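Two proteins follow. First one:
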Amino acid sequence: MRIQIGSIEVVPEGTISPYRVTGYCGKARSEALRKWFMGEPTPGLEFWYAPACGGARKLSGPEETDVDADQVEYMWGTGRR
């Protein structure tokens, strides 16, 4: 199963459950996701699949998501493919 970007929570490193902390939102979340998808360092952050129905798990990398290079280009205008 590939994960949609809307179900990805950005939380501080060491989080036991993304449902118990306030994750990043707005511009901070967008910038963290951009770095993660582009392979840039994101020190102190973790990325979790956290659907509303429960069953969260930590993601090992962007390849687990349903976002490809064209979508990253569209969302963040990186100029890279």
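Second one, unrelated to the first:
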Amino acid sequence: MHDEGIDQLRTRVLTPRSGDKVSIEKRLKAEIVLMRSHARIVEDRSGYLVCEGKYGRGVADLKEASLFNVANQKPSRWHPFKSHLYAVHGVLCWAVLGVTTD
């Protein structure tokens, strides 16, 4: 059952975004809430999020996102984003779903 939920979430996240800025940001926020329930949140404060998922440890620091390999703590992905909202969404996609959405 848990894997089915992840697969449905992965399909939802990978669906192309369309609409105005407000509707896209509402969709991102809804997807973030769903992905957070599948991640272990290590630290969450204004402008900074650290989470762990099946695919690694994700860090969203302001407008930058990084994914670290859990075994050796070396970065496996890094990407600058246009806002913290997009960085949090990106890092959760990497850590929880193992997908890139940019």
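SUMMARY FIELD: Strands lie at 40-45, 48-53, 56-61, 64-68, 75-80. The radius of gyration is 13 Å.
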